[in-house]
Amino acid sequence: KYKKSEIFKLKRAIMPRFLICLREIVEMSLFITDECINCDVCEPECPNDAISQGEEIYEIDPNLCTQCVGHYDEPQCQQVCPVDCILIDEENPETHEELMAKYERIITFHR
């Protein structure tokens, strides 16, 4: 796993063009911040049922979140969130291939 401090050092140390390429290779799970207003619009948009109501706010299960890889081009929850509280979780980096493999496991399990 990458630490946030390591990622920031990396970002400062290498060219911006390389960062764009790196972002395309290393994707990450999503998480919901405490700015969530419990509006209920994100949960039904998740094709993997990764979003559920937590004690105080909605939560995303990183074991089920594929950032909609396998379903859509963009994470649907981020598209509908009215307060933009669904962010990239830099503590859980995943490649596109890992997200696709997770998607394959999920659809196999749900059949």
Report on this model:
It is globular and about 30 Å long. With 111 residues, it is of the alpha+beta class. Strand 2 (51-53) and strand 3 form a beta hairpin. The chain has 4 helices and 4 strands, in the order H-H-E-E-E-H-E-H. It starts with a helix and ends with a helix.
**So how many helices?**
4
The side-by-side strand order for the widest beta sheet comes to 1-4
Global structural class: alpha+beta
What would you call the quaternary organization?
single chain
Low-confidence stretches: 15-26
Q: Compute the separation of the termini in Å.
A: 31 Å
Shape estimate: globular
Content of β-strand: 15-25%
Features of this protein?
globular; two-stranded antiparallel sheet; about 110 residues
Write a brief structural summary.
Mean pLDDT is 82; it is low at 15-26.
SSE layout and pairings?
Blueprint: H1 4-13, H2 16-25, E1 26-32, E2 51-53, E3 58-60, H3 76-80, E4 86-95, H4 96-109
Antiparallel strand pairs: 1-4, 2-3
